Amino acid sequence: MTPERPSHLAEALRRRDWLVSAWPWRALAYLVSTVPIAGVLAVGLLVIGAPLLAAVNGLLLHDRPPGVPLMLFLAVGSLTVLALAPIVSFPVAAVERWRLRLVDGRPLPPSPWPGLVARYRTAAGWREVAYLFWLGGVTPITYWVFLLLLVFDLGLITSPWLAGDPNEPVVIWQPIETTGEAVPYAIVGVLLLPVLCYSAGLFTAVQATVARWALAWPVDAAALREVARSRTRLVSAYEAERRRIERDLHDGAQPRLTSLTLQLGLARLDVPEDSPAARPLAVAHDQARGLMVMLRQLVHGIRPQSLTDLGLAGAAQELADASTVAVTVRADLDGELPEIVETTAYFVVSEALGNVVRHSGATHADVRLTRTGGDLVVEVSDDGRGGADPSLGTGLTGLADRVAAVDGRLLLSSPPGGPTLIRVELPCRR
């Protein structure tokens, strides 16, 4: 099977073929394209940073406070930079979002112009300002350090060609007089090239991570909490409506259909077989009985009657008895379960046992129902062939969606050759 292509540089760095892939060249393109942007920003920051550094240096080393003109210049300049930063950061952020695709294929949210006031009032705007200062202040320093390391390594590699020069070249504080003395340094320099290459990739990955953090819109935690609450309310309302429909069908439509089927059966007994009405009456009777079966299945699909009558452990045992595969049920449940959790757990067991029968080729399965802390844990395992893959069908995906709707989680372990284990954890908050 062909390995999945990495989507970003940090993931690609963990692969053995990184050096011979296209990722080093993409990282180099990202680094080179950063130079003009970071250079321009660094020059702009130096206009304020250099006088500020000189003033601090004079105060600390010479105990000489800065003069009034310098203080005025620093104050006005700093306020001007802060005032213009949210506006300047917008086009820089747009370019950075475009450049980030060189080393990170994961999509970023779009960045339309939110309005001048919003640039000063939103957290997203000031995150971009922070990235602006990081790009113009921290990035140039790291680039210079890396450039010095690269020049130093190139000096090691080229030292055999410099040996014998009248100026007596020095490598690591040692003068080189002959080519033989320089060869070990050249070998070390060659061996350091992959290290520098990985270091450049690692630095690029760090820079891309900072860019993604700063340029992605911040998550609104309050909005997420409200979405979770609204989802819970919708699921609860949906389950309540399901129960109402189940009661209406079970207590209203189903008894009347049973009575109609009985009346048609009695009418068939009273009508002679050679009567013209005998055949239509038989057809109507058969259709009524088929409709009863269909209605019973619909009621069972909404909320099984066995779940209401026997509870979760008893209903799971009923599913196990009806399965064509030998199933052992172990239940350790104390206390009453929330109705929505009980219904979800039942359908987890039902769908999992159905998959065992249809796809696993297993001879035995186990169902375990336990209360762990505040969660109901449902585990269904089998001794089948394994290899279950949610992407190959909608059964496991639909099951995961049903579990997620009640804030639970589904874990699947199904290596080729088996065994398969489905573990579902459902919170039992009432």
UniProtKB/TrEMBL annotation:
Q: Enumerate the catalysed reactions.
A: ATP + protein L-histidine = ADP + protein N-phospho-L-histidine
Domain Histidine kinase/HSP90-like ATPase, chain residue ranges per copy: 340-430
Which CDD domains does this UniProt record tie to the protein? Answer: HATPase_UhpB-NarQ-NarX-like
Q: Name one Pfam family in it.
A: Sensor
User: Is Membrane a UniProt keyword of this protein?
Assistant: yes
What Gene Ontology cellular component terms go with this record?
A: membrane
Q: What SMART domains does the record tag this protein with?
A: HATPase_c
Transmembrane residues, as ranges? 28-50, 70-93, 129-162, 182-206
Name the Gene Ontology molecular function terms of this record.
ATP binding; phosphorelay sensor kinase activity; protein dimerization activity
List the EC numbers from the record. Answer: 2.7.13.3
This chain's protein is named: histidine kinase
